[in-house]
Amino acid sequence: MAESKRILVSLPNTLLDEVDVFVNQAGISRSALIREAMQEYISHRKRKEKEELLKQGYMLMGEINLKWAEMCFEADNLMQLEYEEKLSECE
């Protein structure tokens, strides 16, 4: 393991009791459990941040796509009207 530092963490007695039961059943140390929990928490937060950025990106792209669709719909309607006018002139 890489170089380590000791830290002091305060926990409510009820949580510490739960931790002790868990580590005894799992056969690991408190330190190992806390390390793993911290790594999982950080990974979870990073994943949530990425999901939020993706959500914002998809929302923005949805707005952009809607504007493009509206512009193209208007242009298509104009072309259809011009075509129908020219067609009626031929009759």
Descriptive terms for the model:
91 residues, 2 helices, mainly alpha, rod-shaped
What is the fold's blueprint, element by element?
Elements: H1 13-26, H2 30-90
- Shape verdict: rod-shaped
Straight-line distance between termini: 87 Å
Would you count the extended β strands for me? 0
Summing up helix and strand content along with how strands pair, one would put the structural category as mainly alpha
Report the helical percentage: over 70%
β-strand amount: under 5%
Helix/strand order: HH
Structure in words:
By secondary structure, this protein is mostly helical. The chain has two helices and no strands. The mean pLDDT is about 90.
Short overview:
With 91 residues, this protein is an all-alpha fold. 82% of the residues lie in helices and 0% in strands. It has one domain.
